[in-house]
Design brief:
The protein is α/β, with parallel strands linked by helices. It has two domains: 11-241, Spore Coat Polysaccharide Biosynthesis Protein SpsA, Chain A (Alpha-Beta Complex), CATH 3.90.550.10; 246-314. Helices cover 48% and strands 12% of the residues. The chain is built from eleven helices and seven strands. Strands 3-2-1-4-6-5-7 form a seven-stranded mixed beta sheet, with helices on both faces. Helix 6 (142-160) runs parallel beside helix 9 (224-241) and helix 10 (245-272) packs antiparallel against helix 11. The chain is elongated. It starts with 8 loop residues before the first helix and ends in a 21-residue tail after the last helix. It binds uridine-5'-diphosphate and magnesium ion (MG). Magnesium ion binds at residues 107, 109, 111, 213, 218. Residues 107, 109, 111, 213, 218 line the site of magnesium ion.
């Protein structure tokens, strides 16, 4: 679990069952309703909870509202970022300051319903590491939102082998150990299930409520589709080659070099033995091209291999993840 510095030692001692992480950009009208709805729902369970609101460089009164609320509410921790970093970074900040055994994320715009949180947590307790919400009745525009999302979900499902229907839903519940293992960059929050899958998580999906936006407007336009595609490529690469880049680049490079060399030998034979001119043959260009790309791919593989080693070793990250360690008389879950 993540240990965070807090100036209130009492808070650190208290064991938190669930941290609710909310990334926020310009949603001041929604916040009072949101905080009340989360508190109301979680107070009805006997869980110890904290709400972590991350202000992602809002230009409205979000930051001052959060500061004022955090001063009077026991259950709220407000993290104010210096500027706007994007939803992924805001979520990542929330994860870093979360102390709960489970972490739930949701949007601040009241599109996700906090009433669903206990249901997600119950599902998590059935032994899953990640429970994702599925917006069965999604309340967003059909052409600009639903269609791109349908295509993106299909693509992601096909390429990442995580079989859930709705990647874009922010309402998700995670085990804290899983969150600590996932590093977020770019706009990878959409691919959290795929990242979790790479970390060996058990993932499931349950239907959740979804409402139309009541205040403000969406922070994203159609241009996000392209960024999602680029992130998808990153994820694909991570999934396939994280620990063995040389298997791909080395193999391709070797194949390319061998073909180039073969053609080169053939051309040399023609030149030296048959005494024919080879200067104007396209095959010569192909041979050179194959040799050069081959060497480059091979070197790239070697470099990637070194990078991967640095990636794992610098963070003390083993290349495997342990779900449980079981020995006689000790069945504690362990990291
Ligand atoms: N958000 C954020 N930083 C940003 C953009 C968005 O923290 O740069 C937050 C936003 O306040 C909301 C959530 O991310 O709580 C989802 O954003 P939005 O509702 O605009 O996305 P949509 O639901 O339209 O996909
Ligand atoms: Mg929204």
């Amino acid at each position: 679990m993540i240990n965070i510095p807090t100036d209130n030692p009492e808070k650190q001692k208290q064991i938190i069952d669930v941290s609710v992480v909310v990334p926020i950009k310009d949603e001041v009208e929604s916040l009072p309703h949101l905080l009340d709805a989360i508190s109301c729902t979680l107070q009805n369970t006997n869980l110890n909870y904290e709400i972590i609101c991350v202000d992602d460089g809002s230009t409205d009164d979000t930051a001052s509202f959060l500061k004022q609320q955090a001063a009077i509410r026991e259950d709220l921790k407000a993290i104010i970022l210096r500027r706007n970093y994007g939803q992924t970074a805001a979520m990542s900040a929330g994860f870093n300051y979360a102390t709960g055994k489970a972490v739930v994320t949701l949007d601040a715009d009241l599109q996700n319903d906090p009433v669903d949180i206990p249901m997600l947590l119950n599902k998590l307790n059935e032994g899953y590491d990640l429970v994702s919400g599925w917006r069965q009745n999604r309340q967003d525009g059909a052409v600009n939102r639903l269609l791109p999302s349908k295509i993106a979900n299909w693509l992601i499902r096909r390429t990442t082998s995580v079989n859930i229907r709705d990647y874009g839903c922010s309402l998700k519940a995670y085990r804290a150990e899983l969150v600590a293992d996932m590093n977020l960059y770019g706009e990878l929050h959409r691919f959290l299930p795929a990242l979790a899958y790479i970390e060996g998580a058990k993932i499931t999906e349950i239907p959740v409520r979804h409402h139309a936006r009541r205040f403000g407007k969406s922070k994203y336009g159609i241009s996000r589709t392209f960024r999602v595609l680029m992130d998808l490529l990153t994820i694909l690469f991570m999934k396939k080659f994280l620990t063995r880049p040389m298997h791909v680049f080395g193999l391709l490079g070797l194949f390319s070099m061998m073909t180039g060399t073969g053609i080169g030998i053939y051309l040399t034979f023609i030149k030296l033995v048959l005494n024919e001119s080879i200067g104007s043959r396209p095959l010569l260009i192909l041979a050179v091209l194959l040799l050069v790309t081959g060497v480059q791919l091979f070197c790239f593989g070697l470099l990637a291999e070194l990078l991967m080693r640095t990636y794992h070793e610098s963070q003390g990250r083993p290349i495997y993840r342990v779900r449980e360690i079981v020995v006689k008389n000790d069945s504690d879950r362990s990291q």
